[in-house]
Amino acid sequence: MSDQEIPPRPAPVPTNFSQPFWDGAKEKKFMLQYCLDTGKFQFFPRPNSLYTGRRNLEWREASGDGTVYSFTVTRRAPPAFRGREPYVIGSIQLAEGPRMMAEIIGAQYEDIKIGAKVRIAWEEINEDFNYPVFELVE
Amino acid sequence: MAKKDIAIVGYHETKIDVNTGRSPLDFAGEVLDGLLGQTGLEKDAIDGFAVCSAMSGMSTPFWSVVVSDYLGMELNWCQQVDIGGSSPLGAVARAGSAIRDGQCEIVFVLGADSQSSQNLSNPRGWQPEFQIPVGLMGPPGAFGFITNRYDGVYGLDLKALAKIAIAQRGHAVMNENAYEKFRKPITEDDYLNSRMISDPVRLLDCVMPCDGGNGVIVMSTERAKALGFSKMVHPIGFGERDNHGVNNPDTDILETGHCVAGPKALAQAGMTVDDVDMFQPYDDFIIAVMLQMENIGFCERGQGCAYVMDTDLTHTGNLPLNTSGGQISAGQAGLAGGGTNLVEAVRQLMGEAGERQVAGASNAMVTGIGAIPYLRNWSCSTVMILEAG
């Protein structure tokens, strides 16, 4: 199957409090929630600080740098992803602290090791959504 | 001193099967009928009801009320427990508390689900936004992260995982309620050569969604004795840990909530792991069994493979493991699956396990695992110690 025949990823379904992440993504800015009381970042977006339970949060642009905490390769994909297999999905430890699940594009399973450096890239789903993916950094 | 004031006096489970087309209400009815027949109780003696949430049937938020209405039960206490595969143990513990508090006297704890026939559950929370568009293949994908991390940090001996799979399958062969196609032995080669689903998770690492039901009857020990029950099983220790590590961005994906729930349950029971006569852990993936051994303290973290290789896990061994096959080899009755291992422990402790009976056992450790979070270990962990009365 050629790349042209593979349908785009399913579009995400934002919540009112996660919308700033997608607004940033549209401009290829990687936005994370930051807890002003503890100085810690969090992902995925939540209505409150994970650390204090308070709502003293703001959005900050993150570096997009990370390392591989763990990984898997999907050989039998969910229906919307048939034709893309096999593809590697990482648990990415972001430089800012939180972990994020994302495809590591252009990589073979054999190339990935725990601790490998990765950097964010964006894959366009439609005119409203860019979706975060990561690439191995040489 | 362990409390023995609560008693389980009856158990029942249905045959586990795939694509039965049966409503979970029908499994619920079969379980109730079996329990009434076994215990000799009249239906109207039951005044408390706790039901595990289900993948099938329950697009309604009133599930416990609907099920108990169908079964014709007038109640003083009625609830749904929704901590996934931890629900049956959670329900028994909650029932015990309610009985002690005088809210009800005799509780029917039920799990009934037809997940392979009908799955009405919606993706949860973060999934439509941060998991489904990534393309993760559900639970096998999540356990891919766990398994690769384990391999990277400690090194994974696949022979140890195969040994767990083989031991459980051997027990399913002796369990007439197990899914029929699983009632034949497997070999180490069968395990190692089973096809990859989400590397390094193989087909024979995974549980298979099925249909089925199970349940127990819980009351005070005083009441059980007054009613003349000669066989009973006491829950003498319980621990529960939900969302372990959620507020630590650097949480260890290999650390399960059982590291809190296990020691708590053992302390309540006045026991150590060396005192455990049989281990009936929740098993959605083979490696989950080994992680629980490590986190509850049967061995050090990272020593699970060596511990498994040194331990006889069969029903005649030094730590009998999931003696009815566990869910991986008996089939997972949807969200009722957590009751499979509970019912087996009760059956064993009443001495009614037939050819797979563990000789001389007076207690069992049963566990639950519920729900898969975003990139952490599992969401809900329960541990219960049962003692023969």
Explain what the structure shows:
The complex is a heterodimer of chains A (138) and B (389). The longest helix of chain A is centred in the N-terminal third of the chain and has 8 residues. Chain A has 138 residues and is mostly beta strands. Chain A has a 5-stranded mixed beta barrel. Chain B is α/β, with parallel strands linked by helices. In chain B, strands 1-7-4-2-3 form a 5-stranded mixed sheet, with helices on both faces. In chain B, a hairpin with a 1-residue loop joins β5 and β6. In chain B, α9 crosses α10. Classes of the chains: A mainly beta (138), B alpha/beta (389). At the A-B interface, β2, β4, β5 and β6 of A face α4, α5 and β5 of B.
Unreliable spans of chain A? none
In helices, the fraction of residues of chain B equals 25-40%
- What's the β-strand tally of chain A? 8
* Unreliable stretches of chain B: none
Q: In what range is the share of β-strand residues of chain B? A: 15-25%
- Find the biggest chain interface: A-B, 44 and 35 residues
Which word captures the global form of chain B?
globular
Major sheet of chain A, described briefly?
5 strands, mixed, barrel
Distance between the termini of chain A: 29 Å
Order of helices and strands of chain B: EHEHEHEHHHHEEEHEHEHHHHEE
Beta-strand content of chain A: 35-45%
Task: Give the SSE map.
The complex is a heterodimer of chains A (138) and B (389).
Chain A: H1 19-26, E1 31-35, E2 40-42, E3 57-61, E4 65-74, E5 87-94, E6 99-105, E7 117-124, E8 130-136
Chain B: E1 6-13, H1 24-39, E2 48-52, H2 63-70, E3 77-81, H3 87-100, E4 106-114, H4 127-130, H5 138-153, H6 158-173, H7 188-193, E5 196-199, E6 201-202, E7 211-220, H8 221-226, E8 233-242, H9 258-269, E9 279-280, H10 286-296, H11 304-309, H12 326-330, H13 338-349, E10 363-370, E11 380-388
Parallel strand pairs in B: 2-3, 2-4, 9-10
Antiparallel strand pairs in B: 1-7, 4-7, 5-6, 8-11, 10-11
Helix pairs in contact in B: 6-10, 9-10
